[in-house]
Every structure is written in C-alpha cells, then in structure tokens.
Amino acid sequence: MVEEDEMAGFTIGKVAKASGVGVETIRFYQRSGLIDEPTPIKTSFREYPDATVDRIRFIKRAQNLGFTLAEVQELLGLSEQPGASRREVKAMAEAKLGLIQQKIADLKQMEATLSQLVHDCSGRGRVPGCPIIEAIVGETNTCNHNGT
C-alpha cells in the first residue's frame, strides 16, 4: 500500500511509476472504466487518490492470472459490492482455472506432436518428404473446403 504522504499530488506519471505501468495503460484503464479519471484540482494537473495505485496493481495481478479486462471489471465490481458473495468470485476463478487447464492440456498435446515430428526429421536433405512439412500438409488436407 502506498503511504498517503507519498500520494499527495500524485500525477499520472507518478501513479504510473508507483504501479509499474505506463501512462498510456492508465489512460486506457480510464477509457475502459476500470479507474476513474480525476478532476483537476487548483492547477491543470490531475491528482489521483492513493487508492488508484492499489486498483491498478489489482488489475495487473488479475490479468497475470489470466483474467480478461471484462472479467477484471466484474471482479472489481464484486469487490466493491457490500452484499456480493464469495461464491461469485470463486465461480469466476474456477471457470478461469478450467480454461487454463484446458490450454495446458492443448499445449502438452502440441508439445508431444511437435516433439515426435522433430525426432522423425533428420534435418538433412531437401524439404520434399520432410516429416514436419508432410504432417502440416496432412493436417490442412484433413479439412474440407467448406471450413469444416
């Protein structure tokens, strides 16, 4: 958490530095409704409240866990809703976990297939007959031209 005295007069550049993101990221978050755009106080500079840095850090951590910005918006909404249930947050996390586990399974299958193809290719000679190319051509030929 950022100390209040450190936040006094925090401009967009200082918020960016404190939260570890770029100024354009902050502007994007503002346009997306993830963070509020402060109104100018006394000068033309906009001063951000200390909660802005914490909110940006939350957004980045959630993104690092695989949540989309729309999902982050929903998580933020739940975290700010006094009557919200942990069940809703858990359901979102479980759904994200399922997607990540499926991606991992898909990547493992891709790894196994590509590993076998690399093993089958001697790396010598001309490209025609290369098992890697043949496997890729075979993959594209298994689909008909109707997109199915």
Automatic annotation (TrEMBL):
The keyword Transferase is annotated on this UniProt entry: no
Keyword line: DNA-binding, Mercuric resistance, Mercury, Transcription, Transcription regulation
HTH merR-type domain sequence ranges: 9-78
GO MF annotation list: DNA binding; DNA-binding transcription factor activity; mercury ion binding
GO BP terms: response to mercury ion
Biological function: Mediates the mercuric-dependent induction of mercury resistance operon. In the absence of mercury MerR represses transcription by binding tightly to the mer operator region; when mercury is present the dimeric complex binds a single ion and becomes a potent transcriptional activator, while remaining bound to the mer site.
Name of the protein in question: Mercuric resistance operon regulatory protein
Organism of origin: Novipirellula galeiformis
